Amino acid sequence: MLRVDTYPTHEYEGIKIRRGKALPFGATIVPGGVNFSIFSKHATSCELVLFKKHEQEPYAIIPFPDEFRIGNVFTMMVFDINHEDIEYGYRMDGPYKPKEGHRFNENKILLDPYAKAIAGREEWGEEPDWDKEVQYRSRIVLDDFDWQGDKSLERDIKDLIIYEAHVRGFTRHSSSNVKYPGSFAAIREKIPYLKELGVNCIELLPVFEFDEFEHSKISEETGERLMNYWGYSAVGFFAPKAGYAATGKYGMQVDEFKNLIKELHENGIEVILDVVFNHTAEGNEKGPYISYRGIDNKTYYLLTPDGSYYNFSGCGNTLNCNNPIVRNMILDCLRYWVSEYHIDGFRFDLASILSRDQKGAPMVNPPLLETLAYDPILGKSKLIAEAWDAGGLYQVGSFPDWGRWAEWNGQYRDDVRRFLKGNGQMAGRIIQRIQGSPDLYNDRGPIASVNFITCHDGFTLMDLVSYNRKHNKANGENNRDGSDENYSWNFGHEGKTDNPDIKRNRIKQIKNAVTILLLSRGVPMLLSGDEFGNTQFGNNNAYCQDNEISWLNWDLLEENKEIFEYFKQMISFRKRHPVLKTEHFRTAYNASGYPEISWHSQQAWNFDFSADTLTLAVMFAGAAEEYNTKDDQFIYAAINMHWELHGFELPELPEDKNWYVFANTGMNAPEDIWEEGQEKKLNKQSEVLVASRSIIVLIAK
Predict the structure, then answer these.
(1) C-alpha span between 426 and 34 (Å, rounded)
(2) Where is this region: Disordered (predicted)?
C-alpha cells in the first residue's frame, strides 16, 4: 500500500516532487527520496540545486513552488534520487539592501546550515580550485552507524581529568608512528597511550568542517604556507571535518569519527568538543558567501544600525545567538552531536558572546544559555564556557550558570603561573585557587572551575619555563600577535639549552606546576604534549602553523620519560583520593577529627593570610565514612616557591598513622615520585625540609 505522503504531486523537468515536511531542517532521507527543508524569513524565493558528486555543473535546479513554503520554511520532497551520489545547495533571492541588513544574491549557491557532511575540503592541505564558483557543497548522511550498545559515559564532572588535543597535531609528526597521521583514525591508535597516562576525557579542538585555507598565505619570514590550523572558524556546524579523516576522500568521515568515539568510550575516555558558535567563516562585509549571509543575513548575524557586522569575536562577524531561530539552530546542533555522535560535552569558545542580546548588549538571563542548561537531551552533557569574548566582556566567576555551566578559570592559570614564577603577593590568591576558587564560585562549588595552566592558546608548559617572551615571527605578524602577559621564566637562558642546571630546574618547575594542578579542587585540564615536554619553540599563538611548531614530537616522550612518569603518577594519585575532588567548599572539622582542608606556614596550624610569602602548606583530611574509603585520608603538601630551602613543621597525625613521602619535586627520578604502596616513610615525623622551588607531597599511612 502506497503512503499518501510519499507520493509525488508535482513534476519539474522530469523530477518528481511534492511539498515536504518542515521539520527537521536539513536533508532527511524518507521513503522513496529526500526531504529538503530550509528557513529564510526574508527570502522571496528559493531554488534547490542538485549535483552529481564531483561534477562541476548541476544536473537540476528546482524552484520551490509557492505552495511548498510553510511559514518561513521552504520544504520539498524529491523522489527517485540516490542520496549517496548527490551533492546539493540552495539559491535564495531577496532584497540586496546592506544598510537594512539584507545581502541576498540569487547567483550564489549556498551551503545548507544543517548539512551533515560537506564536500570541498576532503583532503587536508589539498590546494582548492579557486576558480570554482562553489567551494562547498552539502552532502546527505544516513545515520545508520552500528554503535553496538555504546552511549555517552556520563561520568561525574568532578572525576574528569581533561586532556586538550588538536586532532591533526596530536599525531601528524612522523615520530607518532601511526598508520594515518593527523586523522581521527590515528587517535584510535593512541588510546593505549592515553590509558597509560591516566586521562579519562579528551577535549578536541574544533572538528566541525572548516577551511584550512581561510586567510592562507606564504610567510615572508619562513617561506612556509600559513593555514587556518586551529579551525576556530566553522563552515558548517553539523558536519565533521573531512580533512581530519583518513577516509575523508571517500566520504567516510562520519563513520571514522564515530568509530573513534565508540572506541574511546570502550576504554573509559569521554569526548568533549570545542565548539565555536560565536562567529562563522563568512567574515565581515568583504567575506565570502558560504551559507548564512545569503540565506538570511539579518537573522543570523548581529548587525549595527547601518547594516555592518558587530565583531565581538575578533573574526569579522558575530552570530546572532539569542535570536530564536539561531538559538534553535545551536540547540539542534548540540542535540545532534549528543544523540548521533554520543558526545559527552562541549567547551564553548568565547562563550560570553552567547550571553549578548540582538543589539550586542550583555543579558542577565540569556535565553540560549538557559535553554542549553535545561534541555532534556543535553541533560547529562558537560557544558564548559570560555567566559570572555573579544569585545571585552569578561565573566569568569559570573557566567550565567543555572547550576549547569562550568568555566575555564583564566584566573587560575594566571595566578598559578605567577606564583610558580615567584611573584610576590600571591599567597592569598593561590590559596583560593587550590581550594577550588571559592572567591569566584562560592555558590556553585569547585566543579564550576576548570583549572588549567596551559592550553592550546599560549605557551606549552615546557615553553613556559624556557622563554621569557613570545617568539611568533613565523606567524607573519611581526611578533605582534599572541599574549604578552605569559608570566613565564626561562631560568637564565632563552629557549633550548645544554646547561644541565637550567634543564634540571625546568623539569622541576614542570613537576611543580602539575603537582599544584592535580592537587587543586576543581576539574583539571592538561594540554597534550605537556606530559613529555613538548615545545612550540616559544610560539604562543600557533593558530596558523601546520608544521613541527604545532605537531607533537613523540621522540620527546623517550627524552623526557621522567616528566611523563611524574604526570602519570600524579594523575593516578588524584584518582585515588576523592578528598581532592569534592563538589563542595568545606573547611569545618569532619569525622576525621580535622578540618577537611587547612592551611599552614612553616609552622603547623599557623598561617598568616595577609602575608606576602612564597611558602605555604595545605592539608586535606577526608573522613572515611564520607568518602567511602577504608581509612581517613590525610594529604599534606609543603610548597616552597622561594629560592632558598625551608623547613616545615608537620601537623600531628592520629596515633596509628605516620607521614610518608609520595612526591618530592626537588629530587631526581626515580626518587621524585612513588607508586602506590611504595611511598617512603619520613625519617622525622615532626618536620620536613623542602628544597628551593620545590614541593613535597606526604600521605598518612
Answers:
(1) 62
(2) 472-502
